[in-house]
Each structure stands twice: as structure tokens, then as C-alpha cells.
């Protein structure tokens, strides 16, 4: 069974037979733990051997009953004496849902592309890459939630980027942008962690300026300086960056001046009924004013009606995206025309 390194997307192997090595201070056991097969212990360490994956799951469940807090342990391969660290919560999640872990490890998904249109010309400007699993019973939201619980975000993020860049090489022409979501929490040291992305770009011979990496705002970024280093690393490599789901938190002049994104993607909640909702209109006026001041292009996502499209077009929004324009498809739509 394969697992990934905690801090990148590289693969390591969980042995079918092995041992859990745990710092004794992390394990709280009342009395003699007869239901836990301890193979070795001293003042600092407790070791539990397991003879199968089922046995390992049973041991973890017993540990869960006695310990409510998360802690790190080591998985030890008794044959090679190699070990790797993992949190008990991450290990337990992976073992309980091995089908989802396999989907992520094997990259058993593809990219569907949703068109983004230049609102001044009605021409397709680019596409957003949206992950879709080939296993129809697993939706992307479930997969991303599981990746967070199991510590597989980095692996999923890397493989999703590869799928998106591959789709760009297969379906889009030079000059057409592809917008790719990314999770800042999976990037620890930008200069190191993004090497994988830069290698993919070279492999598929993509012009870096055709790639737009957009921050997933739902992570509620707290370390703005770290985010700035990530965006600066992308831009230094010739790529573009965008802030996704922009709401009041990212709309201040100070924040936009600091991060200097190439694009703002306005959250769909401000687009819905914008042709008649005065509060949404006021927010959009402010966004357009600030974006124009800083030279940032504005993309409205979630456009679903002709009325919304018409009002946004009159406002001067640069690009539009949504079901009114086109749905995500494995083979993307090449043109857009008003009904």
C-alpha cells in the first residue's frame, strides 16, 4: 500500500507487516493495556507490532479509544529498518478509506475545462481546470475533503496540476489561458515545492504565461506574507496569478497592492442577480474601481443569466465564466455566442 510524504507528493510504502513506534508521552494508557499488544517499551518509547493491515487498523482503533488528541508516530518496516513519520489521524483516515487514497495516489481523475470569455469580444479567452474523478461514485468535493483529513493534500494538489497542464497541452492553443486552483497550505517553501510544477510545464512544453494559478480563498489565508512569496515565485517564472472567490476580505486596496494579482475572480454570490441587487452592485463598483487603479483584470464567475451577463458587460468587467457561457466538459467548448 502506497502513501505520500507529509511535505511533498512523493510516494513511500506502508509495509503490510511492521510496527508503530510512538513517543511514550503521547500515549495515555490506564492500567495494564491487555487489549494492546505492546512488543517493546521503555521510558521514552512504545512499540506495537502489526501482522496485517487489518491488525494495524484494529490497533489504531484501540489507541483512539484511549487517546483523543492527535499525535505523530513512526511506521517501521521491520525487514528494511526504514521508517517514516505520520500523524495518527492521517494514518487512520487512509486505512479506513483505502479506495480514496488509491484514487489520489494513482491520479485516477481527469480535468474538465470550463470556458472563460472575453466580455468585450465574446471570444473564448481561456478555461478553468476543474477536477473530476473517473470513479463516478466519488465527487470532487468528497475527494478534497478526504485529502485534507488524511494529509494527502500535497499529493492531490500536485497530481491535479499535472492533469490540468496535460489538458492544456491536448486541447488549448498557444495564447489561451488555463486557470488552475491551488492550495497555499500545500506549499511550504515556494522555491522548493513549486519545482514539480515547473518541471511539468517543461515536460508538456507549455508557455508559462498561458498558466494562471488561482488561490483558493476558502482556506481563509492567515499568513499573507507567505502567500505573497508563493505568488511572487509563480510570477518570477513567467506565470500569472489570480485571487479566487474575491469578497470583502481581499478587496481592500492595501491587500491588492501587496499581493499584486494579475486577475481578480469575483465570488459568484456577488454575481447572482447583480442586475437588480443594489448591494451586489455597490460591491462590484468598488472592485472595478480598485482593480482599475491597480491594473488588475476582473473575472466574474457564476454568470447564469443573460441579464447578469448584460449588466456586467455594461459595467466593463473583463472576463466572464458560468453556466450561461458553458459548463465544464472533458472536451471543451471552443466558441461562445449570445442566445
Automatic annotation (TrEMBL):
Q: Which Pfam families match?
A: EAL
* InterPro entries assigned to the protein according to its UniProt record, in alphabetical order: Cyclic-di-GMP_PDE-like, EAL_dom, EAL_sf
Query: Which SUPFAM superfamilies does its entry note?
Result: EAL domain-like (SSF141868)
EAL domain boundaries: 93-339
Task: Quote one Gene Ontology molecular function term.
Answer: cyclic-guanylate-specific phosphodiesterase activity
Q: What CDD domains does the record tag this protein with?
A: EAL
PROSITE patterns associated with the record: EAL
Gene3D superfamilies in the record, alphabetically?
EAL domain (3.20.20.450)
For this entry, the protein name equals: EAL domain-containing protein
Q: Which organism does this record belong to? A: Halobacillus locisalis
Print the organism lineage. Bacteria, Bacillati, Bacillota, Bacilli, Bacillales
Amino acid at each position: 500500500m502506497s502513501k505520500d510524504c507529509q511535505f511533498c507528493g512523493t510516494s513511500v510504502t506502508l509495509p503490510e507487516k511492521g510496527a508503530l513506534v510512538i513517543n511514550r508521552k503521547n500515549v495515555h494508557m490506564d492500567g495494564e493495556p491487555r487489549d494492546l499488544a505492546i512488543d517493546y517499551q521503555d521510558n521514552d518509547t512504545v512499540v506495537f507490532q502489526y501482522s496485517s493491515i487489518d491488525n494495524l487498523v484494529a490497533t489504531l482503533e484501540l489507541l483512539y479509544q484511549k487517546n483523543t488528541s492527535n499525535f505523530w508516530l513512526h511506521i517501521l518496516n521491520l525487514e528494511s529498518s526504514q521508517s517514516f513519520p505520520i500523524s495518527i489521524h492521517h494514518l487512520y483516515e487512509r486505512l479506513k478509506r483505502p479506495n480514496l487514497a488509491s484514487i489520489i495516489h494513482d491520479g485516477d481523475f481527469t480535468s474538465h475545462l470550463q470556458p472563460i470569455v472575453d466580455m468585450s469580444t465574446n471570444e473564448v479567452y481561456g478555461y478553468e481546470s476543474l477536477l473530476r474523478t473517473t470513479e463516478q461514485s466519488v465527487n470532487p468535493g468528497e475527494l478534497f475533503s478526504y485529502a485534507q483529513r488524511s494529509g494527502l493534500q500535497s499529493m492531490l494538489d500536485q497530481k491535479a496540476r499535472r492533469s490540468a497542464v496535460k489538458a492544456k497541452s491536448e486541447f488549448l492553443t498557444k495564447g489561451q489561458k488555463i486557470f488552475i486552483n491551488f492550495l497555499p497550505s500545500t506549499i511550504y517553501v515556494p522555491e522548493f515545492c513549486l519545482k514539480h510544477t515547473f518541471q511539468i510545464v517543461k515536460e508538456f512544453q507549455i508557455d508559462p504565461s498561458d498558466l494562471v494559478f488561482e488561490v483558493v480563498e476558502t482556506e481563509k489565508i492567515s499568513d499573507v506574507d507567505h502567500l505573497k512569496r508563493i505568488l511572487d515565485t509563480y510570477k518570477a517564472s513567467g506565470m500569472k496569478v489570480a485571487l479566487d472567490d474575491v469578497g470583502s476580505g481581499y478587496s481592500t486596496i492595501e491587500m491588492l497592492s501587496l499581493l499584486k494579482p494579475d486577475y481578480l475572480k469575483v465570488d459568484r454570490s456577488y454575481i447572482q442577480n447583480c442586475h437588480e441587487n443594489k448591494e451586489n452592485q455597490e460591491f462590484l463598483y468598488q472592485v472595478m474601481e480598485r482593480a482599475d487603479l491597480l491594473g488588475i483584470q476582473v473575472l466574474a464567475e457564476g454568470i447564469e443569466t443573460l441579464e447578469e451577463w448584460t449588466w456586467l458587460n455594461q459595467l466593463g468587467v473583463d472576463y466572464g465564466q458560468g453556466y450561461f457561457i458553458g459548463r465544464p466538459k472533458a472536451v471543451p467548448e471552443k466558441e461562445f455566442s449570445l442566445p
